[in-house]
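Record filed here:
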Amino acid sequence: MFWATGVLAYVIAIFHRQSLGVSSIEAAARLDIGAAGLSTLAMLQILVYAAMQVPVGVLVDRIGSKRMLVAGAAVMACGELVFALSEGLLPGVVGRALIGCGDAMTFISVIRLVNLHFPAHRNPVMVQLTGLIGQLGAIASAVPLIHSLHTYGWTPTFMGAAGLGVLSVILLLTVLRDARPARTDGPPSLKAAWAEPGTRLGMWTHAATQCSAAAFLLLWGYPFLVQGQGLDPSTAGVLLSTLTLCGMACGPLLGYLAGRFPFHRSRMVLIVIGTTTAAWTAVLAWPGRAPLWLLVLLVVVLAANGPGSMIGFDYARTFNPAARIGAATGIVNGGGFVASVSVIALVGITLELIGETDLDAFRWAFAVQYPIWALGAVQVLRYRGKARRLLLSAQPGG
């Protein structure tokens, strides 16, 4: 029951996180902003999320998961309420920043529950299942949210989203049971977690695999499909939902493989990076608008990004003791979202500099991903070597 309640809180957090992505065109009109303004909204939300990862990771090691989950749900509800009433960029930024702050408290807390309450051999699958079920929130933020915006309007839609946050608080307070961690007098967990090469291997894994799909789902996928590729909004919503559904199907498989073949996890990561690069290259190089089958192929390939990034948390668990799982998980998650916000910001800046949102502009904008993929792949190879050497030296006679 504790896991199910935590996962439900995560589902609602994902809904809050991605509610901007499918409302970006409406947000631009309501808040009277352009591509740079939209990028600012998404970027600050994720910057706050990323900046909170390490503090939240340290706090969850000290005060437990329940308190952090309740606080996160309450803050996100406040953020959606502010966003529902926003009529300009400044209140919109405040609303999305609150959502980013509350969101940051959720996933790490749920992962800590998984790490402490499930045996090691089941952990990779349970982490993937957590991410998989959480993506139901992404599905709810696609077609249903688009329908609500078109049917009921801006304020009622986001007031309803705030109500979901209140429901999450009530459930967490009444159902979730989680003992507060015992006090420890040891050295700070953050420094030790950062010094561990396996933690940084997990961080670069998360960064290199997550950023493309995150930028696509959180902000730029919907405008790219509608304004760049000429799809109607309902078809774009279906493609975004397809990405999420395929990711849910891919997650348990990658979780099983990561648990069954732990020494091949980095190969899985590199395959995810390589196929993502190849799929984007095919779409961006296609003369004119890409055919629907190729766009479907793109979202299917992007669907592996989220499950691939979860391997980073498995590295954090493998190379760190339980007392610093929160701090290590925060470092891993923070790295992924720094990469994601970098892609979101660079795409927005490129579109603003070009001054258009047509297909050619989107081609140049999405090309900013290539250096990030390259850097991530190099760093995964680098820290994989360091982590393996450390394991060999720790063995008797090593």
In short: Residues 204 and 376 are 6 Å apart (CA to CA). The mean pLDDT is 86. The chain has two domains: 1-174, 190-391.
